[in-house]
Amino acid sequence: MSAGTATLERELSSTRRLLWGDHVKEEVFRRWAQGFQFSSDEPSALIQQEGGPCAAIAPVQGFLLKILLSETPGHSLQDLTSEKCNSLLVRAVCTILSQCLASKYNVAVYRKNDTEAETSTSLNVSAEEQSCDAIDHFHRRMEVHSFQTLSEVEAFYTRNIRILKDKYGVLLLLYSVILSKGVSTVEAELSELSDPLIHSTYGYGSQGLINLMLTGRAVAHVWDHDQVVGGLRLRGIERQNDIGFLTIMEHMQYCTVGSFYKNPKHPVWVLASETHLTVLFSLERRLAAPETVGESAERIFRSFDPEGNNFIPSAALQDVLCAADLVSEPEYVELMRRKLDSENLGIILLSAFMDEFFPGCERGAPDTFTLHHYNGLSRSNPGGRVSYRTGRAALLECPMRAATTDPMLTCLQTKWPSIDVVWDEGQSPSLN
User: Fold this and answer.
1) 276, 372, 373, 411: which is the annotated catalytic residue?
2) What does this protein do, in the record's words (predicted)?
């Protein structure tokens, strides 16, 4: 049944302000006004028509792949019917809604006028839209249906798949997520931020929006748990997530991605460049295994070795031991420093550190594995065809971080410092 008109108008007004702020360029809104459409070249790959809506499309693609890979391991990604892909889309959307922990699910629907009903495509612009502000037109024709259970939502979307696939489908999902979670709850999670979830000038989604779609919480940061900075409690990711998140911005030292995002429950990661989101995934389940104690310690050691030299200054040993939750009393640290730097060179090798504290520790991840990459923008794919790219990855003995200028490899090295990948067609996929 439809929500009460007065309450709906207040909620929609608050949601509009939360997403867009007080002013938004009509061009930005139109870039987001698309449905979830699949590529004719890759049955389960969603197409992004313009820059901007990747903050919604990439998470949906990630959850879609998570479901597909979990249920049909080894299944050909090409051997999928349109009915199966529509079902995966609905279930991915419902997974995102389920993370909102809502007492009821409010599903936004766009009510077409007669002209739009006759010519239903994602590119048509009605006369009514041309004669008025597009965002006002969109909100005037929106209605909301409430459901008590997720199974009811799934059945509703299955019967009315055009809600998601027609024009505005991407936006309708955003409104459904916020209306289901509750505007006040989202605002509370964003308490330290005042900017809208969608940039009013450039149209990209904020980290808060990305986190909302990936985790169900509109927090602003990607580290594990909350951190107190300058007396302020800044919220991060509170638990291991179903799918992960990696960003090239970590290499630039603009942020620190925590273990909950780097080591998700499924081998699927949303990848972020400065301006775009894509998706990385693998059929190798061992990539989703939690870090071993030794892997965690190696990661911490390498964080004190930003140049990838495989050694740290001996003076940094106490900080490394403390960060790795090892004994860090000054007397013990001095004893270990003399042992690990017996020639008094002022450095401690990674190999010596691991042999001393984690002898015989094996990797949880395999040394070689296959990766796949998705980019929804046709202009970023070879020949303009949106399809998955495949790469053969290897974890090398020595990290390559200092040597690479490849944005894809740089991003992947924030999780796997020693990774190298040989991609099909001889060129790395684009992160943009």
Assistant:
1) 276
2) Hydrolase that can remove 'Lys-48'-linked conjugated ubiquitin from proteins.
